[in-house]
Write a structure and sequence with these properties.
Length: 219
C-alpha cells in the first residue's frame, strides 16, 4: 500500500477515511490539522499541526496527500499553503462509483460513494463529487468545486473553478456556471449563471453579488 497524508480532521475527513478503507490502496500515516496543539500518535497515525508538515515530508517522502476539507475556498488556500507538487496528491474514488473509461479526473479530487461520471466528462483538481451525484457526458467541472449529494449535471454542462452545486440541484444541458458561484440545494438551473452569483429555486433565480436582492435571469 502507498502512504497517504490527510490534511483536515473534520467531518469530510471522516468520509474520506472510509473511502480509503474501501479502496484499499493507501495506508494513512499522518493527519494534519491546526486544531492539534502538538504532535502525537494515535491509532498508528501521526497527528500534527501545520508546523509539523516539513517533518512529515522528510519521514514519508513518497507519500501522497489529500486535502480533506469540504469548503472550496479553504481547500484552495491549503493547497497554496502546502506548496507541494500537484502530482503528490492522491485521487480517491469510492469503489461503488461508476466512472466512464473516457472520463478524466484531476489530482486531489475525491469521488464519493455511488457517484456517476459518464463519457468524456472532465473533472478538475481538488474537487469533490459527492455521494450519488451524476456528471453526465461531456461535462467539464473545474478546480476546487463541490458537486453535492444527488446533484445532477446533464450533458455538456460547464462548471467553472470554485463553484458549489447544492444537494439535489440540477443543471440542464449546455449551461455554464461561472467561477465561485453557488447553486442552492434543490435548485434547477435553466440558464447560465455568471461568476460570483448565488442562484436558488426551481427554476433558479439569481441573488446579486453583495446584496440580498433577488432577480430573474436576464434574457
Amino acid at each position: 500500500m502507498k502512504d497517504l497524508v490527510i490534511v483536515g480532521n473534520g467531518g469530510h475527513s471522516k468520509v474520506l477515511r472510509d473511502i480509503v478503507l474501501r479502496e484499499a490502496q493507501f495506508r494513512i500515516v499522518a493527519v494534519v490539522d491546526d486544531a492539534f496543539e502538538e504532535a502525537y500518535m494515535k491509532d498508528h497515525k501521526l497527528h500534527v499541526p501545520f508546523m509539523g508538515v516539513e517533518p512529515i515530508r522528510r519521514t514519508f517522502p513518497d507519500a501522497k496527500w489529500i486535502i480533506a476539507v469540504g469548503t472550496n475556498e479553504i481547500r484552495k488556500k491549503i493547497f497554496k499553503r502546502l506548496a507541494i507538487p500537484l502530482t503528490s496528491y492522491a485521487t480517491l474514488i469510492d469503489p461503488s462509483a461508476v466512472i466512464s473509461p473516457s472520463a478524466k479526473i484531476g489530482f486531489g479530487t475525491v469521488i464519493m460513494p455511488n457517484a456517476v461520471i459518464n463519457a468524456q466528462a472532465v473533472i478538475g483538481e481538488h474537487s469533490i463529487i459527492n455521494s450519488g451525484a451524476v456528471i453526465e457526458h461531456d461535462c467539464i467541472v473545474g478546480n476546487y468545486t463541490h458537486i453535492s449529494p444527488q446533484a445532477v449535471l446533464t450533458g455538456g454542462v460547464k462548471i467553472m473553478n470554485g463553484v458549489h452545486i447544492g444537494a439535489n440541484a440540477s443543471v440542464i444541458p449546455g449551461k455554464v456556471v461561472g467561477q465561485w458561484a453557488v447553486i442552492g440545494a434543490g435548485s434547477t438551473v435553466i440558464k447560465s449563471i455568471p461568476a460570483y452569483i448565488t442562484a436558488i429555486g426551481s427554476p433558479a433565480v439569481m441573488k446579486q453579488k453583495g446584496g440580498s436582492k433577488v432577480e430573474k435571469y436576464p434574457s
